[in-house]
Amino acid sequence: MSILYAFVGVPFTMLVLTACVHRLMHLFTYWPIALCQRRAGCLPRTAASVHFLVLLVVVVLCFLVVPAILFSAIEESWSFLDAFYFCFISLCTIGLGDYVPGEQPGQKLRPLYKISVMVYLFVGLMAMFLVLRAFHKLADLQGLTAFFQLSHCDEEEEDEEPIVETGPNDQPDADRASSKPLDPSSRVSYNSINR
């Protein structure tokens, strides 16, 4: 039964997380970067870099440090490092299960505590995904994604040869324009696709 639950639940959760983060990107990423560009007159790269650093610090404080302090206070057997380890492992989706909150006998308001932990994990996953998306946008602006793409083939001579040999009068003008050899220096990416 748990395999069926995971088979349906994990993709559905990722779909919901992706949809939520897509909506939150406007509020927490695009709007602050545009505001920084207009008010401070920053360049897009500078605005994106400053925004990413601020977003990263806020997420680390709000979703790793502060919850670790709370968990270390609520869970009697956890130190701050144990609680920080739980927060980091859980929000990075590693989730080893060696630390589970709310498992101590006699805990007050245990059902409410379990629901609160579940909400924290869901919102924390959205925050981590938001940081990853903001980093991806920053990497696109800085040109880092092009750095990690595979290089083009060295077979430039083969690319310049036409596939089908035809005479100059056999093709209409529109076909001649579209059958130009590919330029090996041009880089096509997903960002160049019209949406």
UniProtKB/TrEMBL annotation:
It is a multi-pass membrane protein. One of its GO terms (molecular function) is potassium ion leak channel activity. Residues 186-195 have a biased composition (Polar residues). GO terms for biological process: stabilization of membrane potential. The keyword Magnesium does not apply. The chain crosses the membrane at residues 6-31, 52-74, 80-100, 112-132. InterPro entries: 2pore_dom_K_chnl, 2pore_dom_K_chnl_TWIK, 2pore_dom_K_chnl_TWIK2, K_chnl_dom. Residues 60-136 form the Potassium channel domain. The keyword Membrane applies. GO terms for cellular component: plasma membrane. Gene3D superfamilies: 1.10.287.70. Residues 156-195 are annotated as: Disordered. It comes from the Eukaryota. It is found in: Membrane. Pfam families: Ion_trans_2. Keywords: Ion channel, Ion transport, Membrane, Potassium, Transmembrane, Transmembrane helix, Transport. PANTHER family: POTASSIUM CHANNEL SUBFAMILY K MEMBER 6, POTASSIUM CHANNEL, SUBFAMILY K. This is Potassium channel domain-containing protein. It comes from Anguilla anguilla (European freshwater eel).
